[in-house]
Specification:
The protein is of the alpha/beta class. It is built from 13 helices and eight strands. Strands 3-2-1-4-5-6-7-8 form an eight-stranded mixed sheet. Strand 5, helix 5 and strand 6 form a beta-alpha-beta unit. The two termini are 27 Å apart.
Length: 325
């Protein structure tokens, strides 16, 4: 692969997305906002209603001025056809090791030798997925945070065998289209964003299950405290500021006893535990069917506000109202 193919604006860039689920179509929307020609994107999925499904869902992820591009994307149910001449293969298929192991062995055999191979898994490391590959240096995790057509994070997680060149090209690609790739120094279960999210969810479930708050009350607590704060700064920077001139060290010196008591009192909850009926029922009653367009617009507005706060001037917006995220 030449350096010219690293940016989505390159005329010879060809991206194959395997899997047309929630993440797959969100990634499709992201790539469409940067590719010069929608025909440079291929979506592969075996669902029988692929054409109708993509036509109905993909435009909702795109700004109004680009929605017509959804009809120009190539669609196929064949892995061989999807990857035959691609420069990037990005997989967002089922979270099953057997599926991914076989898929990457097939892709390695069918795709050009220089194609970048990315898995969007939320937890299965590349060192397990590459077991049946001859060249294990090619595969790495590129884990987006949902929805990736808006949220800028990509966790880049190479296996011990992934080559430095593949990592560098991957990081360069995402930086060149304005995203935020974060390179993890080693594989770890759930990566970083997932571990933080699931730890918070565990404590949230515990508090609801213990009848301290309801689902709706807990969300309101987050929305009016840590949510806005963390969007701008993240936990370490936030707590550094919370400690005043002495920073995080001073903060923990002052409230460390309470912090330790909270850590010691952390409730244990297990997936499939007795809390599920209560929490699921409250969540369904409070929110019902999720409004993804409302979610997307709220995320855009938060990101725009953060950019403005950090730059001291209004963030960029295109003529159709899309802010580039």
């Amino acid at each position: 692969m030449t350096d010219s193919t690293l940016t989505s604006s390159a005329p010879d860039m060809r991206i194959a997305l395997i899997g047309a689920g929630t993440i797959g179509l969100s990634l499709a929307a992201l790539h469409l906002t940067h590719l010069p020609d929608a025909s440079q994107l291929t979506i592969m999925d075996v669902r029988p209603d692929l054409e109708a499904y993509v036509a109905a869902v993909l435009p909702t992820h795109l700004p109004p001025g680009l929605r017509k591009l959804a009809a120009e994307v190539k669609l196929t149910s064949s892995v061989a056809e999807a990857v035959a001449d691609c420069t990037i293969v990005q997989e967002s298929g089922p979270e099953r090791l057997d599926f991914k192991t076989q898929l990457w062995a097939d892709v390695e055999r069918l795709a050009p030798r220089g194609a970048l191979l990315w898995t969007s898994t939320s937890g299965i490391p590349a060192s397990q997925q590459n077991a049946a590959m001859e060249d294990k240096t090619r595969l790495l995790v590129v884990h987006p945070f949902n929805p990736p057509h808006i949220l800028p994070l990509l966790e880049i997680v190479p296996s011990p065998q992934t080559s430095r060149a593949v990592v560098t090209k991957t990081m360069d690609f995402w930086r060149q289209i304005g995203r935020e790739p974060v390179l993890l120094s080693r594989e770890i279960t759930g990566f970083v964003a997932g571990r933080l999210a699931w730890a918070l969810l565990r404590e949230a479930i515990h508090l609801v299950n213990e009848d301290v708050v309801t689902v709706e009350q807990l969300d309101r607590v987050m929305q009016t405290s840590m949510g806005p704060r963390w969007a701008y700064a993240g936990p370490f920077k936030s707590f550094q500021a919370g400690g005043g001139p002495g920073g995080l060290r001073a903060l923990l010196g002052n409230v460390g006893g309470t912090v330790q008591a909270c850590w010691d009192d952390g409730g244990r909850v297990d997936v499939g535990g007795s809390w599920e009926a209560k929490v699921f029922a409250q969540t369904d009653e409070a929110y019902g069917r999720p409004d993804l367009e409302e979610r997307d617009e709220a995320n855009r507005m938060v990101l725009r506000a953060v950019r403005e706060a950090k730059s001291g001037r209004p963030g960029p917006a295109s003529a159709d109202g899309h802010d580039g995220t």
